[in-house]
Design goal:
Chain lengths: 113, 113
């Protein structure tokens, strides 16, 4: 069966520090991968998605970037964190079939202080 | 422009009664709809989905109804249980080469014992 791993679960970082969140998927090949952010009291905002190694699409201009160095690995990064980057970050994967149900990781709570 | 709307931020029901969560959409290209359940500090969990060729899909206590002419879908939970207390997100996909899900902002369901 497929599983998705996302870490760390919680992260507290100072303003201006770098960020690296990692997500890996097991039990499937060539998944579509996604990064979302949920700000407090709000819905899920799609940040990036990827349909293959090295292929990244950005949904909103921001202080973050994403990379997919391997088929089942998706990384969210920032060179210098801002206070507004605080939030709950979620990684998800979906198959490439006709209907793309997305399956989510457990999430990372990022607090930028 | 919010293409998927969940107009009720919260809903409270008694244990054993029916919970009805509503969702409206504006994009007529959406042809696949999903419901997710989310507990605090966890990733969303896929619940049930429906394609636009159907008007009803049932899975145990959960039933999703789709009214394409009204661009409206609803999730019925019968009977409601305290463990159903969570935020419920409605999401939509337009298929084809579009890999993205568009999410509503969620409805917090509280089931009182």
């Amino acid at each position: 069966s497929q599983t998705i791993h996302q870490w760390p679960a919680t992260l507290v970082q100072p303003v201006g520090s770098p960020l690296s969140l990692e997500c890996t998927v097991e039990g499937t090949s060539n998944p579509n991968l996604y990064w979302y952010r949920q700000a407090a009291g709000r819905g899920l905002q799609l940040l990036f998605y990827s349909v293959g190694i090295g292929q990244i699409s950005s949904e909103v201009p921001q202080n973050l970037s994403a990379s997919r160095p391997q088929d089942r690995q998706f990384i969210l990064s920032s060179k210098k964190l801002l206070l507004s980057d605080s939030g709950f970050y979620l990684c998800a994967w979906s198959s490439t079939g006709r209907y793309r149900i997305q399956y989510f990781g457990a999430g990372t709570r990022l607090s930028v202080l | 422009d919010q293409q998927v709307k969940q107009n009720s931020p919260s809903l409270s029901v008694q244990e054993g009664r029916i919970s009805i969560l509503n969702c409206d959409y504006t994009n007529s290209m959406f042809d696949y709809f999903l419901w997710y359940k989310k507990y605090p500090a966890e990733g969303p969990t896929f619940l049930i989905s429906i394609s636009s060729i159907k008007d009803k899909n049932e899975d145990g206590r959960f039933t999703v109804f789709l009214n394409k002419s009204a661009k409206h879908l609803s999730l019925h939970i019968v009977p409601s249980q305290p463990g159903d207390s969570a935020v419920y997100f409605c999401a939509a996909n337009s298929g084809g080469s579009n890999y993205k899900l568009t999410f509503g902002k969620g409805t917090l369901l509280t089931v009182n014992p």
